[in-house]
Amino acid sequence: MDISYLQLTTLVLAIFVGVCLFILSRHTRIPPIILLLIGGIILGPDLLGLINPGSLGDGLRLIVSLSVAIILFEGGLTLHPQGLKKTPKVIWQLLTLGVLITWLGTAGLIYLLLDFSVNMSLLAGSLIIVTGPTVIAPLLKRIQIKEKIYHILHWEGVLIDPIGVFIAILCFEWLSIEGGFLTHIWQLSYRLLIGIVFGYTGGKAITLLLKREIIPEEQTNIFVFASALFLFGVSEYIVHEAGILTVVIAGLVVGWANPPRLKRIQQFKSELTELAIALVFVLLAANLELKNFLEMGWETIIVLGGVLFVIRPLNIMLCSYGTSLSLNEKAFLSWIAPRGVVAGSMASLFGIQLMALGHPEAIFLETFTFSVIAITIILQGGTASIVARLLKVEEPEKKGWLIIGAHLFSRRIAEFIAAKTNGVCVFLDTNADAVRETQQDGRIAFQGNALSTDSLPAEITVSIGYVLALTDNRDLNQLICEKWSEVVAGNKLFRWSSQSLEIEQQIAGMGIPIWSHLAKPSQVSYDLKNSAVHFYQNNHEEGQLQANNSILLMAENQGKILFDQPVESSETTQMLLLRRVPRNLTGLLHHQHILFIQSKSYPDALQVVLKKMEHLYPDLPHGQISSMLLEKEQNFPTTLAHGVVAPHLHCPVLAEPLCFIAQIPDGIDLRTFDGELVRLMFVLFSPESKPELLLHLLAQVAKIASNPEMIQQLLTTQTADDLIQYIKTFKK
Question: Hey, what CATH topology would domain 587-731 get?
Fold first, then answer.
C-alpha cells in the first residue's frame, strides 16, 4: 500500500473515530479517555490494524508535540487568579508538598525496584504528577460529591497540569542534554529563559492586540490559535524543547489578562483541545504494543500498587494535616487521582524522542504511564460512586439555581427563591448589558451560551441543582433544558412556554413548562420597570385579599419551590404572586375593603378605616400614614357632592393603589357645600411614583358622587358584595 495513502488513512480515521468517541462519552458519561484508549488499541496494529501510527514516522512526534501545545495553551487560558484566591489551604499543600511526595516517592520506587538511573526515575515519576481536568471534570459531574471535596479535586486537577508539565520538562531537558554538569545547567537555564521570555512576551503581545481590538472579531479565534502555534514553533527553532513551556506561559498570561472576547477564545480553544485529544490519544493508544504490558514484571506491578495505595494516601494525609477534612473525606481524596491526556501525551512525546537518542528505558515511560492512566481511570473512576456512598461524602441535594435570562423579571424571581430556599441563584445570558446590570445589582451573572453546559465555571456548575429557562423563545427554552438534563435531573428543569399545558404534554419536550398564561419574560420585565405590574408575597389575609386579581407564580413549602400549583395559604407556605396595577376603581374593590361603621366625627371614621388597613397590611408604616392623612383631612376635608367625601394620600411605600369604602348610616356633619351629612367615604391611597393614577381614581369617585341615584343605591346596600356589584354595574 502506498505510504502516503496509509498516512492519510491513519490521520483521517484517527480524527473521525476520536471525535465520535468523544460524542459517545457525552451520552454514556464514560470518561472520554477510556473510550479513546480502548478504541485506539482495537484499531491499532496489534488488533485490527486500521490505524498505523508507525506509518507517520517522525510526523507522529510532530503531531503529538503540536497537540500537547494546544492542550496546554488552552489549560493556561482557563486559569484565573480569582480561582486561586478561593482555593483552600489543602490545595496549596497538594500543589507543593503533594507534588514532591508524588514525584519523589514514585521516582524512589522506580529507582529501588527497577534499577533505573536517577535521571530516568525522576522523569518517570514526574509524568504521573498530573491529575488532569479532562479526566476529573466528567468524573466529578457524574458522582455528585460534597462541594468542599469537589473544589479540592477540581482545582488540584486544573492547577497541577502546568506544575507537572514544568517539572517533567525540566527532567526531560536534564536527561536529554549531553555533556557535563555545567553544560546541563547552562542548556537547561537557556531553555527555561527562552520559554519564559517568549511565552511572556508572546502572551503580552496577543493580549495587547486583543485589547486594542486591532484583530477583527471574526478572526480573533484563528489569530490566537495561529499565534500559539507560532510561539511554539519559534521557541522550538531557537532551542529544542522550549516550545511547550512557551505555550503554557503564554496561555497563563493571556488568560490572566482577561482581554475582550476571552470567553469566545476559550470556547474555540476548548473545541480545538478536544479535537487534539481525540487525535493524539487514538494515535498514542494505537502506537502502544500490548506485549510490553504483558511483559511487565512484578517490580513494575509493585510500583503501580505503591502509586495507588501508598503514595497517594500518604500525599493526602500529610497535605490535609491540620485541616477541617474528616477521615472519610481524606479517604475519598486518597482514592481519587486519575491520570489523563497530558500524562499520556508527555510520556509518548518524551518516549519517542528518548528512543531516538538511544535510551533503552524510553519504552518504559509509555508502558508505565499508560498503565497508571488505565488503572486509575478504570479502577478509581469506576468505583468512585460506590466509594463516595460508603464513605458518606455524597453531596446533599443541591440548592443552587441557574436562571437563563438576566432581566428584571428573573432577578425578582431570584429574590424569592434565594430568600425562601437559601439557594444561590446564578444568571446566564448572552446579552452583555443585561449581565453587567445584574452584576451591578449584586448578583452572580455570566455572559455565555446556555446551550453549552461549559458556559459556567466548573466550580459554579457543581452547585446547580435547578434550571429555570426564561428567554422569550419557548423553543430555545426547551433546548436549554435538554442540554442541562446532562447535569440536572429532569424534574428540576423548568421553562417558560407560551403554549398551553395540553399542547406541551403532546410535544413531550424536556423541562417542565410553566407560566403559559404570562406574557413573554421581556414584556413582564418591561411592565415591572414601568410599575404596570408588581410582585407581592402573601401575608395571611393579604394573600387571599388580592388572589382574585393576581397570578400565582410560585410557592414555597418546607424549602421546596412549587410552580403553577394551587397552594393553600398557611403558616408554612409562602406564595409569590404577580398583580397588574389596577388603573380603574373597579379593579381596587374587595369585600374586605368595605366597612359599615358608626362614627360621631370625621377623624373617628378615618381611624376606623386606618385600623382596618393596618390589620390587612401590617407591613406598611401605619403611624406615618395615619398622621399624614389625618393632618391633611383635618384642615381640608375632600368633600364631594351628595354626602360623599374622598380622603386621599400619596404613599411612597405602596406598589399599587388601595381603595377603602366606608358607609356611615347616621352620617357625619362636615358642613358640606350642599348641606348634607357625609354618609359615604372613598379612602384612596396611591403610589407616590404615580401621581396621575390618583387623579384618575378621584375623577371616577367624583363621577359616582355626581349621580344622586347611584349614591342612594349605595347607601341602601346591606352587604359588601352588593355595594361592589352596584359600583361595577355603574362603571359599565
Answer: Mannitol-specific EII; Chain A (3.40.930)
